[in-house]
Amino acid sequence: MKHADIKDILNCPARFLESNRDSYDLEDLVPVCGWVRTSRESKNVAFLEINDGTCLRNLQVVIIKDRFSRSEYEKALPVGTSVCVTGTLVPSEKNGVELLMETVQVLGECPQDFPLQKKHHTLEYLRTIPHLRPRTRYFEAVLRMRSTLSFAIHEYFQSEGFVYVHTPIITGSDCEGAGEMFRVTTNAWDAKGETAEEYYRKDFFGAKAGLTVSGQLEGEMAAMGLGRIYTFGPTFRAEHSNTTRHAAEFWQIEPEVCFADLNDIMDIAEDFIKSIVNSVLGNCQDELEYFEGQGAKGLRARLYSVVHQDFARVSYTEAIQILQKSGKEFKYPVEWGVDLQTEHERYLTEEVFKKPVFVTDYPMDIKAFYMKQNPDGRTVAATDLLVPGIGEIIGCSEREADYGKLVAAMEKRGMPLEAYREYLDTRKYGSVPHSGFGLGFERMLMYVTGVQNIRDTLLFPRTVGSL
Question: Do 233 and 166 meet the contact criterion of CB atoms below 8 Å apart?
């Protein structure tokens, strides 16, 4: 059905009327479709606030009661009802513009047991009804910013000459070597085998298969022919971690760049973060203002500071020394060789540097097998980008290009070399220095929205015990 978008009406009513004067067959009447977010009545007038999903703001519909019988508009009053309203646009001191109703058609009735009757609900309650929460202003803002951020990511890499590749979701290798994979099978629940090999031989692929934890290894293979690539897709971790920053299914951005060392990839990562944050600032002012009103105080100022200042860089060893000399009591003790915890990361970003920080050259034993070994024999050419309010959002490294060193690192971890034969081939045949990073998309979304729980950045979050 032909109708006007609320976004176009609210952004510039005069321009909308001028550009659409000949678009409708109803002279000066404008048809608008949407869902009733709120309704109220006084003695002579009733009001509907409707939203069609095109913007965060609602359009107020004014119903002059003595011009209609109650039966003509009564079914349009319940919250959640979908309607098509035609009317005349009139100026409003409070709202800028309102729609003075002439006709209303109820497209879908909504009974009184609609779970979103109240204007405000807790996020905990909304997590129990994920199929309905996109109808709330909070999740409309989250999902709208998710869309904007996704587009900005593709726009950045495409403008920089990266090739977008789609790496497998079903894989036979565990990129991180941690074994936290979901198994993919067509075997019956009670299938048996004398050995694991026999069991998997009867399965669909004739081998053990799982959902990918990262597209990095395949991305490296693509980069060896294309030079600069990026992946952007779903990844999965069967990690029993019930925190506000972990989900079993999440999206990840993973560029790989040939002929690039650690400093090169850090420069790319910084430029990338600044670019996508700048895109959010340019396209999501209504949403950012809304989130600031929801408790994310100073959100826009923080994002502007990211765009307009250089990120700090500090070695892991220097970071440990800073933490040890801080005089602060941490829940997790600090000593060289331990992985930094969120409390350590936030102290560095929020109290010491007061901006994003690259921590470089981590101990070899706490990082992945594929990272380039530094000459000191103790550390690897790896970095994590830490940001205020979140902690780590990017894991980054120069990849080990030396075949012998890579094999030694894998053997030290007891990894089956045959399962990584194709990956090792990239080091046998024309290996080059190359680097890459992984950015957790939902964590980045948390950063630009101020949302505190990763479950509230996903349409249908998958977490431990929750499908």
Answer: yes
